[in-house]
Amino acid sequence: MIGIFDSGIGGLTTVRAIIETMPGYDLIYFGDTARTPYGTKSRKTVIRYAIENTEFLIKKGAKIIVMACNTASSVATEAIKERYDLPIFEVISPAVDLAIASSRGMQIGVIGTRATIKSGIYEKKILEKNGAAKVFSTPCPLLVPLVEEGWVTKPETAMIVKKYLHPLKTRQIDTLILGCTHYPILKAVIQRKIGRQVTIIDSSVAVSKTIKTYLGEHPEIEAVLSKNSRMDFFVSDITTQFEKTAESALKRKIALSHVEI
Ligand code: DGL
User: Fold this and answer.
1) Phi and psi dihedrals of 81, rounded to 5?
2) Does the C-beta of 36 come closer than 6 Å to ligand 1?
3) What is the pLDDT of residues 29-39, one digit of tens each?
């Protein structure tokens, strides 16, 4: 089973990408809806939550772990990799690789939560891969609550997106990394506001391609993953709002089960 966790529901964008890229694998998802958002929390707290979420998924039978949350990936990857002896995937490196491969002028923009942008992880990883790249990052803290409220096509959301993207637009970026689980849900408005000439990199799509490649190269791990198209969705709190957001992230109706961890 592939175990995937996020601070909440937004990580279902990664589930969607995994289902599209490699259908058939059994998945277990944990969304930490009781403790969301992570993007405003301290590093120490996010690391503790990431450990607890990983424990839960392993106890449920996960054989590989996907940290769908950009914030958790930014601050907790090292701690999780040190602690657990199974393949751990974070969403930052795949998005960076895809951005570098797609960028024509190496003018790369990154948007994410405050914690992700403050960690500087995207910038660090991009510059490790290409020292000549220019990276422009900006936190977009209002976008997560707007998605959670279902304000995806509202003019107010378009206005806020435009304001957030303005500094990146003036830098004439050619590639933009969506460094947050929720932003793929706003992809259409983000593309409109940043301009059609900018390539958008969706970290959920990037990580699913990385997992597929990894499993192709590691048949011994691939062999232990069950493939009955089974999907179990657990959350630490259920509200109707979470159910609605889940539907827009996954683009299908799903049953969420409540669990205390
Ligand atoms: N899942 C978080 C991320 O990708 C966004 C929501 C939150 O702040 O917890 O950064």
Assistant:
1) -65, -35
2) yes
3) 999 999 999 99
